[in-house]
Structure formats: C-alpha cells, structure tokens
Amino acid sequence: MTTIDLNEYGLTVKEVHHNLSCGALYEHAIHYDKESSVADNGALVAYSGGKTGRSPKDKRVVKHPESSNAIWWGPVNIPLEPQTFAINRERACDYLNTRDRLYCFDGFAGWDPKYRIKIRVICSRPYHALFMHRLCHLQRGRVSGYSAHGGYGLQNQH
C-alpha cells in the first residue's frame, strides 16, 4: 500500500491509498464499497445514491477579485463567496475524516503540457479515484515535471 500524509489538507485518516493502479482500485471497490459490484460483462457498477449525474445548477465558482471579470456569471456559473466555500470545505473535511480509508490521485488535467494543470483528488470511494484515473490518465511518474505540491486540490465527500 502506498500511503500519503494529508494533514496539510486537514485530513487525519491514517489509511490513505495514493495513486493506486486501475486494477487495485477495482479490487478496493469490490472489497470495501458495499455499493459496488461487477456486472455480467465485467464492468464495475457503482451506485452513488439519490443524487446521480451532474447538474449545471449545482456548480458554484468562488468569486475572486483576480478572476471575477473573466467569468460569465449566470445560471451555470453561480457565484460563491469565499467564506461560504470555506464552510463547505470544512464540512467536506469533517466527513472525510470519518472514513476508514481515503484515496488520493495526483495527475494532470489537460493533455497539452503548455496548458495542463496539476491536480490532486482526495476521495472516500475507490470508484471516484478510478474515474479520475481514467479521466486524468497522466500520472506522476509517467510525466516529467510532476510534483505533488502546487496545482489544484479536489475533495469528493460522497
């Protein structure tokens, strides 16, 4: 098990799986996630509860003076005050700290080195990490210039 310390994010869970392979994440989903199973064709089936899919009306963008004028505010890009974001982030950390294990994925968003950004995804369910592994397939160790610090952090509390 490759573990990583996430104290800098306010997370104190001791069992943190870092950059697991797709196969290991699949195994974790079957072994640890009661909402996951294997379909007849071998695909992983994971249930996320009553709120499935992505709703554009659920998206919020933190209003920041440096970027506020560059965003098209409206029904899809709904402004969120920094204080409200901080409260929501604290609630997410509180939830994640109740989990037995977490998954951390370090990778890149974007293919072109000129435009890609580093991301770190921290989540409580292996299928979320598997999804990000497939979406942001350029992992640390496979691409030069990656370091775990800097970039953006995403936390998924479901």
Summarize the structure.
The protein has 3 helices and 8 strands, in the order E-H-E-E-E-E-H-E-E-H-E. It is of the alpha/beta class.
Per DSSP, the total helix count is 3
Q: What is the percent of helical residues?
A: 10-25%
Q: Roughly how many Å is the radius of gyration?
A: 17 Å
Architecture, according to CATH? 3-Layer(aba) Sandwich
The H/E string reads EHEEEEHEEHE
Instruction: Tell me the CATH superfamily.
Output: Phosphoenolpyruvate Carboxykinase, domain 1
Globular, elongated, flat, extended or rod-shaped: what is the shape?
A: globular
The strands making up the biggest β-sheet line up spatially as: 1-6-7-8
- In terms of DSSP E residues, the strand content is 15-25%
**Beta-strand segment tally:** 8
Q: N- to C-terminal separation?
A: 23 Å
Descriptive terms for the model:
Phosphoenolpyruvate Carboxykinase, domain 1, single chain, four-stranded mixed sheet, two-stranded antiparallel sheet, 8 strands, 158 residues, alpha/beta
Describe this structure in words.
It is a single chain. This protein is an alpha/beta fold. It has one domain (7-50, 82-156): Phosphoenolpyruvate Carboxykinase, domain 1 (3-Layer(aba) Sandwich), CATH 3.40.449.10. Helices cover 23% and strands 23% of the residues. The strands form three sheets. Strands 1-6-7-8 form a four-stranded mixed beta sheet. Strands 2-3 form a two-stranded antiparallel ribbon. Helix 1 runs antiparallel to helix 3.
Q: What topology does this entry show?
A:
Layout: E1 15-18, H1 22-32, E2 36-38, E3 44-46, E4 60-62, E5 78-80, H2 82-96, E6 101-109, E7 117-123, H3 126-135, E8 152-156
Parallel strand pairs: 1-6, 4-5, 7-8
Antiparallel strand pairs: 2-3, 6-7
Helix pairs in contact: 1-3
